[in-house]
Amino acid sequence: MRKKKISITLNSPVVLAFAFISLIALILGFVTGGVSNTLLFMTYRHTLRDPLTWIRFFTHTLGHAGWEHYIGNMSYILLLGPVLEEKYGSKKLIWVIVITAGITGVLNFIIFPNVALCGASGVVFAFILLTSFSGFKNGEIPLTFILVALIFLGQQVFEGLFVNDNVSQFSHIIGGLVGAGAGYWLNSRH
Questions:
Q1: I need a labelling partner for 3 at 20 to 30 A (CA). Which of 35, 46, 86, 142 fits?
Q2: What is the mean pLDDT of the chain?
Q3: Thinking of the domain 13-188, which architecture would CATH place it in?
Q4: Exposure pattern of 98-135 as b/e (b: 16+ CB <10 Å)?
């Protein structure tokens, strides 16, 4: 009996690149004492004349406040992302990430002028809702999607209203809505 050779494959380039770049941003944050996060990986109210303000609308998803924050987000991204990348393709997944980052960054800038936003949790919630929409067929809404939306988004609305924990439930909700919209749009086109 011949033993089959086991090899490691690069199965999800977008997801792996996102996790790796986020890791570099995290390490850079530690090395610079958080200066790199403020400069590049956190969105907050600042002059629109500064080109970095516009860049941070998108790059804030790469920064994290610490190892626990990074590990929590990357666990979901590495779990859900490869399935999504295989189903929808790398280019469409990049667009989901970019649109989620842009919308959460701009809305945080406009609605919460005194709150800095850092981390990939909006992308995580987009992935969660997009994954639950994977069984969608034209004219049918999967019950799993309804339950996931109620559980995850309902929890975020509750915590946003009643819990003061320094977590941006707003970006979770917006990310979830982007994921649900992307799921509907991507699956209704098949």
A1: 86
A2: 87
A3: Up-down Bundle (1.20)
A4: ebbbebbbebbbeebeeebbbbbbbbbbbbbbbbbbbe
